Amino acid sequence: MSETIALLPGDGVGPEVMRAAAGVLARVRPDVTCEEALVGGAALERGLPALPDATRALCERSAAILFGSVGLPQYEGKPLERRPELALFLLRRDFELFANIRPVRVFPGLEDASSLRPELVTGLDLIVVRELTGGIYYGKPKEQRTVEGVDEAVDTMIYRAPEVERIARIGFELARGRRKRLTSVDKQNILETSRLWRRVVDDVARDYPEVALEHLLVDNAAMQLVRRPGDFDVIVTENMFGDILSDEAAILTGSIGTLPSASLGARGRPGRQFGLYEPVAGSAPDIAGKGIANPTAAILSAAMLLRYSLDDEASAARIERAVEGVYRDGGRTAELARGAKVLSTKAFAGEVAARL
Ligand code: NAD
Known about the structure:
With 356 residues, the chain is of the alpha/beta class. The chain contains 13 helices and twelve strands. Helix 1 links the parallel strand 1 and strand 2.
C-alpha cells in the first residue's frame, strides 16, 4: 500500500532543503507519495492561517510529516498567534508529539569543525530524547502577578507518572536498538518531579534488563557532555533540561545544518509511530534564497521518518551511509568549507543521491 507523507517546506531555507530531502526520499522509496502543503509564513503571506485547514487535513491522513522550517523576519516581535511559528506549536499540541528525538553525530571528516578537540568527538554518535509536552513549560499556575504591592512570577513544574513512563519507554526502546546504554537526567537532589521521574524510570528499566541505565544530575550531565561526549548513547530527560542539553549536544558537531530531529506522538506503535521530522535549525533568513544551505539535516530527517514512521530501517541506514560518504570524500557546503570547494544545496543532494 502506498504511504502518504505530508511535505511542509515552510519559509526561508525550508523549501530549499526540503527539495533536496524529497528528492532523496523519492530515490530510495519511489512508492511513497509526497503531498506538499503551505505552512508558516508561506501560508500567512497568502492570507491564510499559519496552519491552514487543508494542511492540517493532509497531516491527518498522512503517515508522517516532513517539515522544513518556519519564520520570516517581517513577523518578528508579533504575538505568537500571528507568527509563522504558531504552526509548529499547533502541530506539536494537536498531534500530541511528546517525544523530541535529536541524534547528534560527528561524521568522519568533520571532527575539526567541532568546538571541542577532535579526539573528544571522533565517532560521536548519541541521541537526546526530550519530553516535549509537559514540565515547567506547560504547568499551571503560570503567571506574573502583584502580591502585596510586589511583582512576582510563577512557573509550575509538574509531571504525571504516565508522562514519564511513555518518554522513558522511548528512551529504552532506542537504547535497545543501539549500544544499550541509557542515561536518565534529572535533579532529584532538589526537585520532587525529579524524584518521581527517577522512580518511574527505574520501574520501566525492569522491562529492559539488557539496557544499562545510569542516572545523572542535570548539572553533572551538562559537564560530562563536553568532558566525555563519546561515552553517551541515549539520554532521556524532561522538557527544560532537554531543551538546554540538546542544544549543548548540538554544538558538539560543527554545523547546526547537519542536525535532524523527530517529534514522535502517541499514535501508532514502535517503528510505525506518527511523527514530525525536521531540521533542528530554523529558517536561516541570512542565507535563504542563495542555494547554499546545508541540506544534511533535512535529508537525515527523511531517514528518521523512514526508520520511525515507515518501519524501514534498511532505507534509513542507506541514506545515512550515503551522507557519511559525501563527508568522507570531502563534500562540504559553504558553512563547513573553510577554503575547500563549496557544494551548493542541490549539488550536495546530488552527491548523496549518487551514493545511494
Ligand atoms: P537559524 O537556525 O535559522 O539560524 C542560525 C544560524 O545557523 C544562521 O547563521 C544560519 O545561517 C545557520 N543555519 C541554519 N540552517 C542552516 C543550514 N541548513 N545550512 C547552513 N547554515 C544554516 O536561527 P535564527 O536565525 O535564530 O532564526 C531564524 C528564524 O527561524 C526565526 O524566525 C526563528 O523563529 C525561526 N526558527 C524556526 C525553527 C523551526 O522551524 N523549527 C527553529 C528555530 C528557529
